[in-house]
């Protein structure tokens, strides 16, 4: 059933790709003409995308959108956020409703080959997990026999959950929702015994509960969930911009370029890689039709990747996630910027 649903969604996305193809050819020009980037984000999950008490969106995905607006328009405020449920995020991108998705979206082969879209660069590594009340006294996910499990429609988590319980020959009952907040309400109300989604999103959801200590995120992981931005096929320049923008944030952290020192680094560094990154020499910006100072402007406004991560979901935030695999490669993580030269 899940396979048929995916193929149906893929067919729909493929149909609207033709309509969006013309738009895809001039994405950068369209953004410049309207003076605003339109960015698809999550409907609400702490750490990635969630409005604060003033109604201002905050999170890693939100910062990545703002940074991209800086790279193109040199203004972090020139971005419009479009919260999208999992079930319609790819069709919204394919139809041209948004320019790019930074929306906790796993990169998979079928998504890359059947939706008329392209995933770009992995900027966050995660894995599927489960959360339940500690008072249930369950130590392992395999003990959730006949459990009702909350899931989000249109995510890889639906299939991962079904595959796992089928593998261990254990029945369960899925209860599917459009949004994370709906699933969490059902979980707290006792309509579900557990909630299955990516571990980082479980941590974000738990952080917003009245008493987070009542809830256990099981340590087991059941999948690989690498998040990447998605863009429409057919616009190589736009793909290049989003790809190398993401790498530039990681490269800045690798080089020790921060929001606090970026101006001094541009003035004094003799490292050719740093000089290229910060626009002392113009070739990187010219190669993707951006200003020579595009990466400098982003880092000055929002910091490097590590600064974004720590500000939005790091150990000192309510989400409290250590870097883990999302540390740069020189510190034992998986993040690795391809050479910017």
UniProtKB/TrEMBL annotation:
The keyword Transport applies. The keyword Signal applies. Pfam families: SBP_bac_3. It comes from the Bacteria. Keywords: Signal, Transport. SUPFAM superfamilies: Periplasmic binding protein-like II. Gene3D superfamilies: Periplasmic binding protein-like II (3.40.190.10). Residues 36-265 form the Solute-binding protein family 3/N-terminal domain. Residues 1-24 form the signal peptide. InterPro entries: Bact_solute-bind_prot3, SBP_3_CS, Solute-binding_3/MltF_N. PANTHER family: AMINO ACID ABC TRANSPORTER PERMEASE, AMINO-ACID ABC TRANSPORTER-BINDING PROTEIN YHDW-RELATED. Belongs to the bacterial solute-binding protein 3 family. This is Amino acid ABC transporter substrate-binding protein. It comes from Paracraurococcus lichenis. The lineage of its organism: Bacteria, Pseudomonadati, Pseudomonadota, Alphaproteobacteria, Acetobacterales.
């Amino acid at each position: 059933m899940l396979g048929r649903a995916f193929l149906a969604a893929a067919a729909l996305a493929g149909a609207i790709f033709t309509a969006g193809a013309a738009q895809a050819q001039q994405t950068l020009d369209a953004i410049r003409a309207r003076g605003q980037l339109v960015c698809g984000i999550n409907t609400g999950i702490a750490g990635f995308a969630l409005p604060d008490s003033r109604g201002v969106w905050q999170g890693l995905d939100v910062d990545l959108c703002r940074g991209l607006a800086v790279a193109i328009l040199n203004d972090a405020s020139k971005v419009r956020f479009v919260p999208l449920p999992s079930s319609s995020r790819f069709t919204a991108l394919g139809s041209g409703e948004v320019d790019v998705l930074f929306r906790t979206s796993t990169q998979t082969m079928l998504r890359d080959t059947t939706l008329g879209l392209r995933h770009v660069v992995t900027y966050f590594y995660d894995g599927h997990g489960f959360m339940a009340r500690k008072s249930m006294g369950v130590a392992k996910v395999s003990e959730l026999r006949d459990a009702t499990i909350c899931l989000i429609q249109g995510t890889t988590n639906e299939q991962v959950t079904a595959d796992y319980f089928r593998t261990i020959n254990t029945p369960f009952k899925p209860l599917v929702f459009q949004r994370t907040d709906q699933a969490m309400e059902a979980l707290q109300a006792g309509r579900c015994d557990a909630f299955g989604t990516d571990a980082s999103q479980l941590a974000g959801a738990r952080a917003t509960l009245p008493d987070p200590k009542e809830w256990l995120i099981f340590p087991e992981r059941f999948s690989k969930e690498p998040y990447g931005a998605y863009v429409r096929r057919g616009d190589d320049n736009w793909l290049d911009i989003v790809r190398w923008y993401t790498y530039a944030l990681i490269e800045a952290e690798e080089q020790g370029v921060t929001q606090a020192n970026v101006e001094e680094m541009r003035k004094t560094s003799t490292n050719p890689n740093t000089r290229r990154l910060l626009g002392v020499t113009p070739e990187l910006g010219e190669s993707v039709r951006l200003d020579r100072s595009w990466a400098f402007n982003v880092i000055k406004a929002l910091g490097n990747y590590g600064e974004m991560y720590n500000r939005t979901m790091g150990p000192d935030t309510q989400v409290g996630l250590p870097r883990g695999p999302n540390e740069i490669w020189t510190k034992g993580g998986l993040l690795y910027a391809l050479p910017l030269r």
